[in-house]
């Protein structure tokens, strides 16, 4: 089964500062835009959870079709 993971680091001001796609699945033309759309839709959930939990890894916080969003939150609240 071919899968692709999108790794994005987002600053506290919701600005992506690093993006990488890793995997063996064939690339769709709109994959980068779709990943950014799903990421920005999940940011509100992440921002609420980051201040209410001490956990640094937030697993499966959002889902869109076959895409799942899991997040690591740093002590400085930079998301990756």
Number of strands: 4
In N-to-C order, the SSE pattern is EEHEE
Strand content range: 35-45%
Mean pLDDT across residues: 78
* N- to C-terminal distance: 25 Å
State the share of residues found in helices, binned by percent. Answer: 25-40%
Q: How does the helix and strand content classify structurally?
A: alpha+beta
How large is the count of helical segments?
1
Rg, nearest Å: 13 Å
Can you tell me the overall shape?
Answer: globular
Q: Which blocks of ≥5 consecutive residues have pLDDT under 50?
A: none
Largest sheet, strands/sense/barrel: 2 strands, antiparallel
Protein name: Trafficking protein particle complex subunit 2
InterPro entries: Longin-like_dom_sf, Sedlin
Organism: Linum tenue
Describe the structure.
The protein is α+β, with helices and mostly antiparallel strands. Helix content is 28%, strand content 36%. The protein is built from 1 helix and 4 strands. The protein has one helix at 31-52, and strands spanning 4-10, 16-23, 57-64, 67-72. The strands form 2 sheets. Strands 1-2 form a two-stranded antiparallel ribbon. The protein has a two-stranded antiparallel ribbon with strand order 3-4. A hairpin with a 5-residue loop joins strand 1 and strand 2. The longest helix has 22 residues, at 31-52. The chain is globular and about 35 Å long. It starts with a strand and ends in an 8-residue tail after the last strand.
